[in-house]
Design a protein that fits this description.
Layout: E1 2-7, H1 11-22, E2 27-30, E3 42-44, E4 50-52, E5 60-61, H2 64-70, E6 76-78, E7 83-87, E8 90-94, H3 98-105, H4 111-121, H5 131-156, H6 165-168, E9 186-190, H7 194-201, E10 207-210, E11 224-229, H8 233-236, E12 246-256, E13 266-268, E14 277-280, H9 281-285, E15 292-300, E16 307-308, H10 312-327, E17 331-333, H11 335-338, H12 345-368
Parallel strand pairs: 1-2, 1-11, 2-10, 7-13, 11-17
Antiparallel strand pairs: 3-4, 5-9, 6-9, 7-8, 12-15, 12-16, 13-14, 14-15
Helix pairs in contact: 1-12, 4-5
Bound molecules: flavin-adenine dinucleotide and uridine-5'-diphosphate.
EC number: 5.4.99.9
Keywords: FAD, Flavoprotein, Isomerase
Cofactor: FAD
């Protein structure tokens, strides 16, 4: 008899498996894929280059708790991600910053001057409700068209005006020349990769891992007291309220017979091409190799559910599922798919650590009754 059957071996499931095993629970962790680490899975391709199977994963967090926790299972390689955008025939920093403006407009403005420049371009939108509002408010129509509109339409097949503000708000606007993609306190990559980190998380003798297994095929057969589900919440309830929309991506990998391909980890293509961005893995991993590997991302509606789509009508459907989820006895939902939230890895870890604390508290309360 297992104490917990955990569905999904990504960050959400693996963190809970590790914590619960450490707290003395017996855990069965299943994934329908043939590997651990969920969407963070990385592996060496046939040329021996470390690549991310589900697209570039860059770790960053402001949470000391999350960073300390993951540090139990990995060493880190400091890495600050940088992104350039291919715009008007030039490569310019994204997020838009002082250098971006000066390069695009052939100016040599100072920080203060660029503030005024952007203020003169900005179109005030109040209240800020959509992803279009966010950008127009900050930089106005011209830069919105150059950097956001086309990219967003490719990525989501929606106009920014049809998406929650939270989506483009992920990318700030800067008036200094900080060209880092993230400004979090902790920015680093697991030295030996994500999969190795997951392997260490799952070494406890009370964790059994079953791959190539859909939990539906075993849930009736293998006795367990409680279930933790990190797959798509709508699938759990047989799409009772209809399918929740997710965005997927087709990844096209290439290994090139040259040492380097592009100047930064990622180059975005906001207005050209069918792909949104190209990432060169060696920037992220720090690997030295005489060849290099890149990935193109082509967004699509079909395929694995990667991105919940943040907009009101989807949130309303999700709220119906969430209600059902809350009524389930001895079943917990967590993770990007389990709670239909556009979460980064660190947010998923934080969410699962919080769920762990809740479960343990319930356990103690149960014992005291
Ligand atoms: P997942 O990793 O998706 O794990 C869920 C697991 O459940 C899957 O392995 C799936 O096979 C399994 N499962 C589903 N249904 C079943 C079933 N019926 N039976 C058994 N198993 C099942 N975050 C960052 O912080 N930085 C980044 O740079 C970053 N880049 C990203 C790039 C892309 C292209 C994508 C798609 C995401 C990116 N993320 C990034 C987000 C990151 O991938 C997620 O936050 C994180 O992986 C979510 O972990 P999870 O455990 O919730 O879900
Ligand atoms: N975005 C954009 N242009 C860019 C970069 C981002 O329009 O050059 C918008 C787009 O809608 C994207 C969102 O901002 O989906 C969030 O970008 P982020 O890089 O955080 O996306 P992720 O890495 O999660 O795919």
């Amino acid at each position: 008899m297992y104490d917990f059957l955990i569905v999904g071996c990504g960050f959400a499931g693996a963190v809970l498996a590790e914590r619960l095993a450490d707290a003395g629970k017996r855990v069965l962790l299943v994934d329908k894929r043939d590997h651990i680490a969920g969407n963070a899975y990385d592996y060496y391709n046939k040329d021996g280059i470390l690549i991310h199977k589900y697209g570039p994963h860059i770790f960053h967090t402001n949470s000391e708790e999350v960073f300390k926790y993951l540090s139990l299972f990995t060493e880190w390689r400091p890495y600050e991600h940088r992104v350039l955008g291919s715009v008007d025939g030039q490569l310019v920093p994204i997020p838009i910053n002082l250098t971006t403006i000066n390069k695009l407009y052939g100016r040599s403005l100072t920080s203060d001057e660029v503030k005024d420049f952007l203020a003169s371009k900005a179109e005030e939108r109040r209240p800020v409700l959509t992803s279009e509002d966010v950008v127009l408010n900050a930089v106005g129509k011209e830069l919105y068209e150059k950097f956001f509109r086309g990219y967003t339409r490719k990525q989501w097949d929606l106009d920014p005006s049809e998406l929650d503000a939270s989506v483009t708000a992920r990318v700030p606007t800067r008036t200094n020349s900080d060209d880092r993609y993230f400004t979090d306190t902790y920015q680093a990559m697991p030295t030996n990769g994500y999969t190795e980190m997951f392997k260490k998380m799952l070494t406890h003798k009370s964790i059994h891992v079953m791959l190539n297994t859909d939990y539906r095929d075993i849930t009736e057969i293998i006795p367990h007291k409680k279930l933790i589900y990190t797959g798509p919440v709508d699938a759990f309830f047989d799409y009772r309220f209809g399918k929740l929309p997710y965005r997927s991506i087709n990844f096209r990998f290439e290994t090139l017979d040259r040492e380097n391909y592009q100047p930064t980890g990622t180059v975005n293509y906001p207005t050209s091409n069918l792909y949104t961005r190209i990432t060169e893995f060696k920037h992220l991993t720090g690997q030295t190799h005489h060849k290099t590997a890149i990935v193109y991302e082509y967004p699509t509606a079909e395929g694995d559910p990667y991105y919940p789509i943040p907009r009101k009508e989807n949130q309303e459907v999700y709220n119906q599922y969430r209600k059902l989820a809350e009524e389930e006895k001895d079943v917990y939902f967590t993770g990007r798919l389990g709670t239909y939230k556009y979460y980064n890895m660190d947010q998923v870890v934080a969410q699962s650590l919080a769920l762990f604390r809740k479960i343990i508290k319930e356990d103690l309360d149960g014992l005291q009754q």
